[in-house]
Amino acid sequence: MYPYELFVGLRYTRAKRRNHFISFISLLSMLGITLGIWALIVVLSVMNGFQHEIRTRILSVVSHVQITGADNTLPNWPAVAEQASKHPEVVATAPYVQAQGLLSYGDNVRGAIIRGIQPEQERNVADIESHMKSGTLTDLKAGQFGIILGAELARALRVMRGDKVVLIAPRGQVTPAGIVPRLKQFTVVGIFEVGHYEYDSGLALIDLADAQKLYQLADAVSGVRLKIRDLLQAPRVAHELSRMISADAYISDWTQQNANFFRAVEIEKRMMFLILTLIVAVAAFNIVSTLVMVVTDKQSDVAILRTLGASPRSIMKIFIVQGTIIGTVGTILGIVIGVITAINIDVIVPFIEHTFNVQFLSREVYYISELPSELQLGDVTAIALMSFVLTILATLYPSFRASRINPAEALRYE
């Protein structure tokens, strides 16, 4: 059998009240909780999706772990790559040369990061191949001096595939006239676009052997890039590799290379959670006013229950049940609507844009032109628990007040 406190609490919730204003406040409280939880789930899912999308684009260019030689030079890189490969989490390695340079085409000059790669190995540690707008990584061949440019960099230089650009290396040649920068003409063999302005506007890829010749590195490279099984384990793997690598090198992971960006996104996510929680808190504490009015309205009922032997604790339980039902129904509705919205946001947003002829994320302004969403069970669970706790807290004072009603005083004028 159910305890009578639950039965009476449910009866009070279902009963048609004489005071319609109390019913209206209860409905507002329930809708407020629903709206707050709906907003929380959708906003956090969108921020998770945004973080995942940007992380994916960054990792198309940046490796999970990077081993960089002292002074940007790693002479015995095959041995370093072999040592790193012994770690169980490492699945691929690739050498690279990275330096600064100036690219010139006609009257247009742009600074860029020049990265020398081995195309066959590079595709194992990064996913830039899938972001090629024209050409492929295999078009980079030693001795042919081909170059692949980011889309924004190519647009700034006003070059297309097949055009020839001049690469000016900062390491110059000593001549009787002084130090003269090293110049080399490269043919544009491809253009990539990862959707991240920093890389699209400032990165150029050339063959590793061509980079070694241009920057006078002989057989040395700048470092080795690694891909691991689980990218979220990159900090731990980088720390463990520091004890396995015997060479004089600096080991970093992708979270360090983009620490400021991901830290900012995480802080923003937490602040949004706190701000939107206030919506739920306001709605939950509306339950206080609802129950206070219910207690006033039901004083005679409470007095009769007390005369029949109900304890103050039982009276508290009755009104706690009533307030909890309001919060629970609002929470369940909010979760259901929020989850449905978060899952189908890729359909809902385009429908709204098409219906009202607006665009929320312009391709010319934002990294992402479509609103991403990634629903996480942990977020939904935390939101539900937060709402439930706030609801319980909101019922305590009115329930305690009901338990303190004096039966003789309540029934004096009945």
What global shape is seen? elongated
User: Could you tell me the mean pLDDT?
Assistant: 83
Residue stretches low in confidence (pLDDT < 50, at least 5 long) are: none
Helix/strand/pairing category: alpha+beta
Helical residue percent band: 40-55%
Beta-sheet strand percentage? 15-25%
**Major sheet description:** 6 strands, mixed, barrel
Number of helix segments? 15
Count of DSSP strands: 10
- Name the strands of the widest sheet in spatial order: 2-3-8-5-7-6
Query: First CA to last CA: what distance?
Result: 33 Å
Can you offer a commentary on this structure?
The chain has 414 residues and is an alpha+beta fold. The chain has 2 domains: 4-56 and 261-411, no CATH class; 65-256, no CATH class. It contains 15 helices and 10 strands. It has helices at residues 4-14, 20-58, 77-85, 119-125, 151-157, 197-200, 208-214, 234-244, 254-257, 259-297, 299-307, 312-343, 345-356, 377-403, 407-411; strands at residues 65-69, 90-105, 108-117, 132-134, 146-150, 164-175, 178-192, 203-207, 223-228, 249-253. Strands 2-3-8-5-7-6 form a 6-stranded mixed beta barrel, surrounded by 4 helices.
Task: Describe this protein with a few key phrases.
alpha+beta, 20% strand, six-stranded mixed β-barrel, 2 domains, 414 residues, 15 helices, 54% helix, elongated
